[in-house]
Every structure is written in C-alpha cells, then in structure tokens.
Amino acid sequence: MKVGFIGGGIMGEAMIKSLLAKKVAMPGDITVSDVSQSRRHALSKGYGVKATANNREAVDGAEAVVLAIKPQDLSKVLSEVKGLSLQQLVLSIVAGASLDSLCRGLDHSCLVRAMPNMPARIGEGMTVWMATADVSQHQRELARSILAALGEEIYVSSEKYIDMATALSGSGPAYIFLVIESLVDAGVHIGLPRDIAEKLVIETTLGSARAVKVMAKHPAELRNMVTSPAGTTTEGLLQLERGGLRSLLLQAVIAAYNKAKNLGAK
Fold first, then answer.
1. Right CATH number for 172-265 from 2.130.10.10, 1.10.3730.10, 3.40.50.880, 3.40.50.800?
2. Neighbours of 21 (CB within 10 A)
C-alpha cells in the first residue's frame, strides 16, 4: 500500500512506525511531507521513508493520503493538494475538521475522518472513525488496516461521535497520566521511594484496566470487591467523593467536547 503523509509530527510518526511494524506498508511505500527540515531528516533516517517539504509530492501516486497536521494549518494544506483522484483515499486525523469542510476544501468525496489517541505510539491506541458514502469497500479496508495498526478501532455511523471520542479517548490519556502522576506523588508524600511508588502505581493502573476488560464486570462491581466495610479503601474513596472527582472528570470531558465542536465550527 502506498501512503502519503502530510505532517510528520508526533501522531504522523506514530502512524508511520505502526504501519512499518505491522508490515501494512514498507518504507519505500511511504512518503511524508513536513515543514521542519529536522523532522524530515529524523523520519527519513529513522524509518527509511521518503521525506519531502512538498505536500503535493507526498500525495502523488498514494493510495491513501493521511492528513496529520494542526488544525490551523489545514486551510493552506487543502488548497495545496486539491485535485486528488477518486482512487485516492484521504484519511484525516485533524482535530475538529469535519468531513464536510474537508470535502469542500479538497473538492474530493472519498474521505475518512478518524480520531486516534496517544497510546497509538506504542501500538496500544484507540481510534474512532467514519467514512463518507463515496468511500468504496476496498478503501474502507485500506483505512481499517491503517488504523488497526495503531491498536483497537471502532467504526461509527455518525460524525457526532468523532468529537465525543476526541473528548473521551483522544484527551483521555492526559487525564489518566495526571491521575498516575498524582498517585505517585501521594506515594512519595507518605514515605515511599519514588521508584517503588511509580512501579506500584503503573502496575496497579494496568492491572485494574485489564481487570475491567477481562472480567467483563461493571467498574462499580469491581470497586466494591476492593472496598471492605470501614477499611482503608473506604476512607480513601470518601475523600475522592468529597473532592468531587466524578464531577471534575465529567466537566473535563464536557469542556473538551465543546472545544472539539468549536474547532470544527471555525
């Protein structure tokens, strides 16, 4: 599969790395454009892909064109690559960029909009995506093979779920990292060496998430399994409820969702 990337930043590199690791594409099949000379050099040297400063060169001959750029750069990029053939699938991971705006900006109707998240960098990502009506079954399979290389993927029937996923799974890792950071600091505060606190928190987080998936029980049921009457966990949970942890997480997701919608409205 020949893939052209416009944008070789964090997510662009993550996708290139995953495609090569899963052998969805070979280095010679990938061309990436980026405004930064240092990024182009790093991608070319690190992965053996072709790197260029010319966006048009990156998309020429590509079966799939991946837009992995910042929202503020989108208008300029769309005007530069306008005029793609219907045989070329465009896959956008640009936050807030609607399918309608992409179709109009490119004058192109074969588009996929996707929202991967940061763990895609290690092949453990979660991506929500959807396609326009003109995307063929073959092109859908191309898109699925690209996104599956990043981790898990879910196809949705309505674009409204993309902005929702942006707020939940797209921004979610930052919330989890903050919780991990806070728990490690708490462990250090009560006297644990930092390396031991980090090990305890990381493995506890991984094991807990895995338990939800494997045991297929509601998180509240699993929480109750850890919570003994008048025990240490009960006391800790009481403080979290007093501090409004649930409400804060809800507000964070709602704020991120509203921001994602506002990005798309610009």
1. 1.10.3730.10
2. 11
